[in-house]
Amino acid sequence: MTAAGNPIHRSFELAAKRCEDLTPLVYRRLFREHPEAESMFRSEGADLVKGSMLALTIDAILDLAGDRSGHFRMIACELQSHEAYGTPRDLFAAFFGAIAATLRDILDTEWSWETERAWRRLLVEIETIVTQQ
Length: 133
Ligand code: HEM
Hints:
The chain is 71% helix and 0% strand. The chain is mainly α and 133 residues long. The protein has one domain: Globins (Globin-like). Helix 1 (7-18) crosses helix 6 (113-132) and helix 2 crosses helix 5. The mean pLDDT is 95.
């Protein structure tokens, strides 16, 4: 499927045209909805970790929604390392929801029913990976 025909890929492309950096928006939303997540990040150097965590999560999402060449497997791997960081599984899964909701806000009227459906399906699949791991 081409990027233009893939609603998940397209949603990131459209967001990139409107917003230079998703990082502050995604974490603001995450910490608003899950305040307990904020103190899990170290106080020094957290911005680098947050930016890199988001970038790698987006890589995994694009791969999971696309040709599944391998990056999507990072979700299961990181689930293990996050147990060590003390991140509960439901919070881990909530990060994906925060990304989707941020894109929905940015896209506004360009967030189509097709995009909504594709994201809902993907979030259900991620939830399955996270709970069945
Ligand atoms: C709300 C949910 C999450 C929380 C609270 C969380 C928390 C953390 C924390 C505290 C660290 C840094 C550990 C350190 O200080 O070295 C970290 C790093 C990381 N997280 Fe998460 N995480 C969450 C969700 C995710 C998800 C869903 C993924 C990807 C599927 C992910 C991928 C990563 C990666 C790749 C790193 C290493 C970043 C780097 O240093 O390059 N995280 N996470």
